[in-house]
């Protein structure tokens, strides 16, 4: 998928994600065997893997810096709405009827994609400056601020194209060798490997913070923390509603707060909630709780504050940053590589939770997950630049060590041309 995004374009790649998704829904409607069900879910998993980095890329390239964060937060908001919608449908319809309804939603998205323009950033990266400029101004309107951003993008891409992989008419063997050499040199550049490291850490933090763990095991967790007699299904619905409300709040906070502030404040609440739940579960299991602390409201408040931290910052920031941090040249490749951490840690966090819970107990499992979150946040603190209200080109320049004047003037810097500067890419420390 990663070469496809950069080669075919955002729109065609987006259309291709619909095919396995629609096929999966129709297979769910028609098959009645375990193998068929697994195949259908596999196809939908492939579609989600393809769509993972693509959604944030498209949103970030089509929106202006002031509104980009709010639009990118809609990725996590749409996931929340989807979970709540699926749970609500499951209460009234069979899973086959649910699959039919969801297939219509996927078909609607197909129609929307067909009538959506190509990303102006991708068009400009391919040298189609007039078409890219036309769509850029159609999406954002035309004022001096937008004109300056477009000028910077075009100037940067003109200098970047001077050191592209090479002539596509060369023999296939030569092209492959040049491509491998290009990838080897690219992997050494801070504008490529630093965003990937940051996104690996953000996605690891996101999964071990437990948004998918609590979604998968909410009934068991509530029974262990609150008590076996509590109405866990009612609490599950209440948490879904809280998640929706907090996601809507996150859209507002993303527009008003700095990314780093929101990330580290929500991360602190998450870690404290983890430790609070661990302490309560340990005390409950060892008979250390006495009135008034042996009360159902204490674990419910801890779970509620934990869900608040996950939804407001921890689940929204990674999807926002993933659309902002990669340079245009490596946006598809870098996004595709980093999303491996999302899928891998999803598997590890969700599958290891019940095993750890049985092996060492819920308190120590929570402590371990909290430790992973703290470790990731500690490294992110020193690597992640602030991206709020900055253009994508400005963020890209900061990793490369450029200023806008460098490629506007196209003059040699420190004895090196722009292309040579791009190949060397001096390191930036945060």
UniProtKB/TrEMBL annotation:
Keyword Amino-acid biosynthesis: no
Keyword Protein transport listed: no
GO molecular function, one term: transmembrane transporter activity
Coiled coil stretches, renumbered: none
Subcellular compartments: Cell membrane
Protein topology in the membrane: Multi-pass membrane protein
Gene3D superfamilies: MFS general substrate transporter like domains
This protein's name: Major facilitator superfamily (MFS) profile domain-containing protein
Originating organism: Parnassius mnemosyne
């Amino acid at each position: 998928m990663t070469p496809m995004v950069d080669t075919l374009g955002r729109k065609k790649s987006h259309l291709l994600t619909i095919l396995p998704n629609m096929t999966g829904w129709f297979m769910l409607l028609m098959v009645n065997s375990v193998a068929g069900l697994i195949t259908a879910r596999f196809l939908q998993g492939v579609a989600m893997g393809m769509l993972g980095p693509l959604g944030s890329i498209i949103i970030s390239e089509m929106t202006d810096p002031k509104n980009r964060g709010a639009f990118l937060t809609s990725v996590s908001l749409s996931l929340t709405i989807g979970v709540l919608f699926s749970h609500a449908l499951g209460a009234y319809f069979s899973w086959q009827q649910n699959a039919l309804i969801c297939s219509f939603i996927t078909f609607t998205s197909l129609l929307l994609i067909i009538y959506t323009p190509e990303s102006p950033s991708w068009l400009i990266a391919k040298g189609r400056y007039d078409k890219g400029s036309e769509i850029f101004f159609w999406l954002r309107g035309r004022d001096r601020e937008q004109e300056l951003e477009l000028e910077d993008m075009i100037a940067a891409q003109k200098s970047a194209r001077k050191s592209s992989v090479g002539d596509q008419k060369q023999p296939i063997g030569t092209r492959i060798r040049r491509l491998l050499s290009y990838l080897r040199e690219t992997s050494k550049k801070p504008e490529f490997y630093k965003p990937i490291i940051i996104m690996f850490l953000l996605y690891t933090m996101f999964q071990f913070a437990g948004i998918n763990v609590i979604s998968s095991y909410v009934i068991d967790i509530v029974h262990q923390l609150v008590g076996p007699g509590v109405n866990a299904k009612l609490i599950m619905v209440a948490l879904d509603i809280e998640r929706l409300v907090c996601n809507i709040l996150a859209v507002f906070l993303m527009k008003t707060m700095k990314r780093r502030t929101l990330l580290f404040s929500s991360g602190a609440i998450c870690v404290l909630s983890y430790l609070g739940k661990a302490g309560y579960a340990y005390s409950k299991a060892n008979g250390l709780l006495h009135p008034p602390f042996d009360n159902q409201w204490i674990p419910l408040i801890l779970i509620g504050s934990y869900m608040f931290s996950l939804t407001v910052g921890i689940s929204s920031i990674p999807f926002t940053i993933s659309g902002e941090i990669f340079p245009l040249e490596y946006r598809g490749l870098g996004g595709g590589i980093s999303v491996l951490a999302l899928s891998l840690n999803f598997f590890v966090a969700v599958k290891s939770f019940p095993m750890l819970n049985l092996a060492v107990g819920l308190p120590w499992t929570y402590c371990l997950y909290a430790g992973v979150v703290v470790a990731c946040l500690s490294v992110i603190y020193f690597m992640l630049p602030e991206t709020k209200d900055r253009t994508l080109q400005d963020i890209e320049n900061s990793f490369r060590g450029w200023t806008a004047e460098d490629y506007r003037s196209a003059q040699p810097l420190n004895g090196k041309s722009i292309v040579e500067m791009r190949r060397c890419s001096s390191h930036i420390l945060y």
